[in-house]
Design brief:
The chain is α+β, with helices and mostly antiparallel strands. The protein has 4 helices and 7 strands. The strands form 2 sheets. Strands 2-1-3-4 form a 4-stranded antiparallel beta sheet. Helix 1 crosses helix 3. The two termini are 24 Å apart.
Length: 214
Amino acid sequence: MVDAVLETVDTADFSLWPVADLPPYRFLAVSHHMSLPEVGTALATLADYNSRASGDDSPVTEAKELIRRLLETETVIAPGGLRIRRTDVDVTVSPGCCCGLESWREWLDVLTGGTPWLGHDPSPRIEHDDKVIRVWPDGGEAPKAPSTRPIEIPVCDLLGILHSVRDAMQGFLSLTKQWATHHVPALALDLATKLDEDLAISAPLPSGYDPHVL
């Protein structure tokens, strides 16, 4: 299973809109299955993270002002990425520190032998082996692969996985439009457009895997 995830911030004192009762610094999967409070948590995370990145820490007292700041960000950075899980062997590969969901399409590079940036601390590791890629939760900088069990993904399956990720992110975008229409109606269209562009959600993916073309 592969999920598009955001690493949540601490929203214990957040009061500008309803958020889900979730622990901070955990991964929240974004999809059409989210509750609206979970969408609120995702947007609070994006607004907080990008405000800190810009250095603007002045107080905000209205939802529309915080969303406006997010819209003014040159490019939205979304802490997180793609999380890969195999529950039958209890292995999870989570995005490392400084990985961003906005770069999820870098996984297309795997189709031609490349390696996307997966973050550090821990440093997930990818190795190519003919028609299979192996992914470990850590060991990215080590000279040898860890002795732990990796998750194996057939390269021919990867494009279908990325289409599923895109569908999940489109579901999140649809819920974001609903959320924004209720909480910041004047900014709803701009917010949806900004997230769509900066997180590379709606742009098409290749329709089929051809190792001689991609």
